[in-house]
TrEMBL record:
NCBIfam families in the cross-refs: GGDEF, sensory_box
Alphabetized CDD domains for the sequence: EAL, GGDEF, PAS
Identification of the protein by name: EAL domain-containing protein
Residue ranges occupied by any GGDEF domain in the UniProt entry: 287-419
Alphabetical list of InterPro entries matching this protein: Biofilm_reg_signaling, EAL_dom, EAL_sf, GGDEF_dom, Nucleotide_cyclase, PAS, PAS-like_dom_sf, PAS_fold
UniProt domain PAS: residue ranges: 7-64, 129-181
Record-annotated EAL domain positions: 428-681
Pfam families: EAL (PF00563), GGDEF (PF00990), PAS (PF00989), PAS_8 (PF13188)
Gene3D superfamilies tied to this protein: 3.30.70.270, EAL domain, PAS domain
Organism of provenance: Pseudaquabacterium terrae
Highest taxon, organism lineage: Bacteria
Amino acid sequence: MTEGSPACAAWAQLIDALGDAAWLVDGASGNVLAANRAAVELLGLARERLVGIPAAQLIATPEDLAFWDGVRAGDAGLLQSDTVLVHASGRLVKVSRRIQALTGDERCLLVTVQDRTEAQRQQDERETLLAELRATLESTGDGILVTDLAGRITAFNRRFAQLWGVPEELLTQRNDDAVYDWMRRSVCDGETYQRRLAAIQEATLMQAHERIELLSGRVLERVTQPQASQGRPSGRVWAFRDRTELETASQRINTLSTTDVLTGLFNRRQLGETLAESMRQARRANGTLALLILDLDRFKQINDSLGHEIGDHVLLDTAERLKTCLRQGDSVARIGGDQFALVVQRVDHRGAEAAAQRVLEAISRPCAVDGLQFTMTCSVGVALFPTDGEDGDELVRHAETAMQRAKQGGRAGFRFHQPHHDADLRQRMRLDHAMRQALASNRFRLKYQPQLDMRTGAVIGAEALIRWRDPELGEVSPGEFIPVAEDTGFIVAIGDWVLQQAVRQAARWRAEGLLMPVSINVSALQFQQADFIDRVGNVLRENRLPGSLLELELTESILVHDADEALARLSQLSQLGVRLAIDDFGTGYSSLAYLKRFPIERLKIDRSFIQGVPQDDSDAGIVRAIVQMSAALGMKVIAEGVETEPQRNFLVEAGCDQFQGFLYAPALDALSFDERVRGRPRTTKGHLSLVAR
């Protein structure tokens, strides 16, 4: 310690006891007389270096320099403020510094310095958090209101003011009572709102969640949580979320989920609920009801030819007409594109029939849309509760099946549910499933029936015929499963399999030296596939089989469905070299004007005409006419189902070119066919002995 007053010497012993950094300064010289351990640590200088150093060097801010100049001039006042000092390492330290003369000795001054580094860091963090909180409050989509325990507003964001429509001046004036009064007057039920608000404020720790409707039409969701500080309640946070659009959308969704958008009638879902409730009531009252399902006849033609706008007008008109058919308690729904349903209460079989008649009459009244007049009809299916079903799904299913039967029966009528038709439908479903399994498991097989030249007896071709033996169903006739396959569309897959197998077999025979044309049947659906021509061409190329060794047998219905399209396809097939024939000729509705345009090489007389010849004059006349017509068109004619020698003799006399049937052989597997064709002439009981060439 340097020279100084006795008072300074006494204070020098005391400053070591201070927690903050402190040093004594001689007022006359401005030098440090003594420093405590805290000062040594704060400044980073040894005590020996501190003693005697000018005090103005330790904290050399302009404020401090001016103060020490004043001290030297005899003006030793008080200096207290936040400042910075430079640590010996060169870093700045934020401090609070106080300089004052010691009591009784103005020549000795005490400098106390408090390190504010940690306090400043905490303050900076608080300011950062506050800034983040303000930004969060303003960026959230919710309106936020913060209150203290007394209900005074301590914070809010702009979204709160927007949601409630609070005038800005009320918030800027900090008039809490005016703000609360505005909110109370803004809700639809102010009394209930105020009562609920008081209950929440009274229960300091209550959490609440509720829905508030404003007079403006806005719907708010209010969530409030208690706010705590140091484990004690300090206030409450209120969050308000705008649910207006959500509520509107929810109502819209609810409407859409139960109502048909176009007609405003119940939809299928709501029909199910209405039907279930009606059935419960009928069951309690030991009563009955009827479900009518109707489908507009040929409505697709309206959409395709007149456009969907006209179609929508027709549907709207239909809905209005059906409403006129309802009695009290009845209901009507639109359950599909042009399909409607009526639930008719408290009716028996006779009452349901009367309801169906009312529907048919209402729909058949002339329509007038945009100046266009036409007449619509519908097909109606009827199912009765509890006779035809114990639940809604079963009743709907039975009514729809009955409606389909009305369609198949000529349309513009109604049918009641008949249980045996369900049994037929289940059988068809089982058959369809078994067919698909059979194709996947290679249970189908092909047999080949020889086709012969009528005069020479030479085998000139083979018709590939599909056969199926199922492990559970046994041998299933093509007459059973082919119609089901055509109805379900599976005939396309089956037809592809037959095409591949038949072409492969013809190619195998060709490789073995037997040039044997193979005929296969082609369904209308298979023929109409966009890639059918490509499939035929690909199969022929893959097996390296000339098109002349493949014949496609088509039904007359294929040709008359779309003659121009059929002609284009047949021409493409003809370019591949494929032979074309008309199967079951005489059972369809071929037009000779179209027939002569098609590249057809052969007509096949249906077996139904062969069975009666030569005894049946009508059948004989038809056969002769077909043969003569074929000759005029330059086509060969083949008869199928020839079983007796008199039938063959008649066909020879009539001029028929070819035949096939049990008279020569049934359909044979490929090996048996090969042996039969290549074998020597032989006579077998029940079969005609012919030479194979």
